[in-house]
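Hey,
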Amino acid sequence: MTSCDECGFGEYQPEEKSTECDSCTYPQTTYGKGATKATDCEGPGLDFTVKKDKKHTVIDSKPKGYNNVEEVDNKKGEWIFYSEENYTGDQVAVHEGESFVKGDGKNKTEQVLAAKSYYAVFPNVFCYLQDYAHEYKGKRSRDMHGNECKNSTGPGVCFADSDTEAPQCYIADGKLSPCGIPKCIWDYKCYSQNGVDYRGDETTINATLTKYYVITKHFNCTCQSWNDDFPTKHPGTHPNDPGMDKYGLRSVYCRNPDPAKYSKPWCYVGVGQNHDDCEKFAQTIQSSEVCPYVKKCTTEKYFTQADGRI
């Protein structure tokens, strides 16, 4: 490239007039072309120090085997800290800009430093979830071309007016411009951690009925709507229940509103095409099942972007 060329998505110009581009640390990326500094890379980042002599930087989750943490500094993003391995036990949220040092007297310090597992929250922070775009809560304050977002009183941020529109912002009176926020893959095509943030559209569970202890029948059932009470009797939810938004309990989709009991998305047993069998299964076997077709995110990209972006 020449000094006049723009760096592409996920890259930045390390110094003025440089003819080379450096890449953001994956999964960090840029939301537009032409980035000129490392801080233009968007994505989570957190430092933790073990025994005051070794600082580690993590960008998605804490690796196992690191104990005696004495300092945590959240550089970017929202993180959830768990008291036990595998994202279980008591949890505490650590917000961007917060830091904790052993002996600092803060209320959360002891719990944060003792946490055995933690992870960054991606959906609707560094990418937006399809069909849940209005929940985007990232802090992006420029459009994809680098223009500052504005509102009637001063600086603005990117937002989504509806569930299906990508985040955008005003760059002038009445002029909206896209922010370049990518669309999430994690927690839409697959679930991460314990599945609490999963907002995909899977609706199917497996079921089995055995007759006379010999004949076994396998079939699929559709998840029951979260605010229905048939065929599975359960405490239920209603449109004004705060859990509806917190856990994305729309329609008949697999979700995990009970992470203390489940470690992946699940649902109450509904009916579907096998109406009689599914009703019998729901009423005589058990009321809820995990969703077998929702796979855990492993090597999938965190999000997808147009124009060659990751």
